[in-house]
Amino acid sequence: MPAAAMPMRRTARRSPTPGMIMPRTIMATIITTSIIPVITITTTSIAITSIITAIPMLMTTSKSPPSADPGAMTESEAAALYRLMTWLSPAFPVGAFSYSSGIEWAVEAGDIVDAASLRDWLASMLADGAGFCDGVLLCHAHRAASSRDEAGLRNTAELASAFVASRERQLETSAQGRAFIEIARAAWNCDGLDRMISWCGGAIVYPVAVGLVSAAHAIPLAPTMHAFLHALTSNWISAGARLIPLGQTDSQRVLALLEPFVVSTAKRALDASLDDLGSATFRTDLASMRHETQYTRLFRS
Which CATH superfamily groups domain 76-293? Predict the structure, then answer.
């Protein structure tokens, strides 16, 4: 019978027999899982349908590590910052909140009545009074301790103790210095600290204590100076805010306005010699002296 006249035979769908070769059309679907990508290939033909699953080779690319952040701190810099923030925090127990450095009498006398007059008073104290003098003493104590200059450290400590205008200011700076040294020895002791303390031979006032301990811990002078003056200014503002009184926002405005005075005073103190010590803030010295006999007082100085 001619091929054209032969009836068409229906072929049942069945699984493929090994070795069969048939025309096919391939459709690939990529399925991504949480672990590895899986490729599923579905093969269809007139007679069969089969599914082949394959796991492709994982491809990796080599990437260069990110460059180091140029602004990142070293481990020693981070440690220095941590210690300065702790030692010069209002929470560090040296009793700074108990003293006003004569500001209480200035408020009583009417010299300080608002945020503006407090700012002017403190700017003078920073640039021409106790702020500058304490900065110079801290600087020379730090340098003497860093260079293991026993005689230089003793001379600076003795001069700093004598260079106080009133009995209450002497109480203020010596009490805070003593507390700072005691806590540093108890919680932040380090090699050489006890020896440096013994070199002073007597009372250690607050700025000398901060300079000495910072040097013993190898903390650079410049950030120590700025942190110290910032803490000193913040404590003065805190006293003024309680006495005037001032709100928190006005207190922060005063602190912001005093920033250039802190920066310039720190720079001058770093460049000054002990011969440059001197004060031109006579009214603040009188305020500290008259506070001794003030009738009602919240502060010890």
Answer: Urease accessory protein UreF (1.10.4190.10)
